Description:
47% of the residues lie in helices and 12% in strands. It has 245 residues and is α+β, with helices and mostly antiparallel strands. It has a 4-stranded antiparallel sheet with strand order 1-2-4-3. The longest helix is centred in the middle third of the chain and has 27 residues, at 116-142. The radius of gyration is 22 Å and the shape is flat.
Amino acid sequence: MPQAKLKVVLLKYTPEPEETVAMAAKLCYSAADINSLKQRISKEDQGLFIERLVKKGHLSPIEHVSFTFGIEGISRACSHQLVRHRIASYSQQSQRYVSEMSGFDYIIPPLIFSDPELKEYFINFMAQAQEAYNYLVTKLNTKGFKGEVANQDARFVLPNATETKIIVTMNARELVHFFRQRCCNRAQWEIREMAEAMLFLVKGIAPTIFAKAGPACLHGPCPEGDYSCGKAIEVRKKYGLKEES
């Protein structure tokens, strides 16, 4: 049962996403007909329109583009947080139809991994969980309950640390909200690492749309109030912003 490592892949996305958003914005503010929109949108226009949208808070046009990610090496604890973002589509590897009899991968939290004693205890517990799972599946099989019927009940002993794989599709507006929430220092470390990897990928495809994407403190006061991490300056430096921004 090796420790799983995070992997985030951008599988698909709306072609020419910034052109699509610019056309949608142009339609809102122009008398141009549909057929002439594409011809009248230059690369320079795209950036200007998108910047104006963000400044005005008129974000509905960026909902026209979407991004699909393949994600593996995250725990079930992380995926439970992820699916709380409801304006999205998810397809997750099933513990009912995919047997864990050959061994399940798992995630070791950094604080536990860095402590030899705690790490050993954690790994031993994972081995016990695997043993319990295999025992239950085997016993259920001997009683005539095979395949997914056995798996669906045996999986109850699998821990939150169990690695999972998931495909996620979000539109750009929901991604901006997702990054605002999950790139924050107050977010749980695992989903924050995943969100940062996702943000890096989409910035390469649509840099203007996601120019200001990231935790809320990048371009304004921290919304966490008394629960703020108090590290806004450090966060802005991490994202390549100057202190005065």
